[in-house]
Amino acid sequence: MRHPRSPRRRLGALGTLAALSALALFTGLCGAPAAAADNPIVDDPPVLATAAVLDGKPIDGIPAGPMVAGGYHVHSHLTLYVDGTEHWVPAGVGVTRPIVLDPTRPDPVITAAEGFYWLHTHDESGVIHAEAPTPHDFTLGEFFDLWGQPLTRHAVGPADGDVTVWVDGKEYDGDPRDVALKEHTEVQLNVGRDVPFQPYEFPSNF
């Protein structure tokens, strides 16, 4: 079972939920910190492509708004390889500005924001959060649309080449956009050279 490749990535996934409620409460009571609107996400070099800056309008019918309390909440994971080298999914996919970053972390971990689409990322761990008031069918294509990047059998974001798709340890022959994102779905996209499926171990609180 593969763990995130560095302790930094593991803590990014685990630390988000702990910091989220406290900072969200602080933001609700006191307003966002003055620097929040100018607090950019600085992507680490392995990030494949930065997250699109979104205006909160629905995308693929998915709305943005406050974090959904209760309701439907599942986590899936996306791993990306380009010619055998792993690239990371950025923090802030499906998140509208201004944002609040965890000030104790050198890497970007989003703890509060103006709004969250029902499909989003808080950090660079590859964990995709799907949160909606009621059960909802989400797809990988919708996630890439929120990311602002293409996804086909010949392109994953800015990376071009033949794409091999793995879902839960099995090779997937269909359109990668149609992959369903359900509880603990593990997706691996290999552009160019194929890489054997690398299982991901979700944090215990996910």
Automatic annotation (TrEMBL):
Residues 1-36 form the signal peptide. PROSITE patterns: TAT. It comes from the Bacteria. Keywords: Signal. This is Secreted protein.
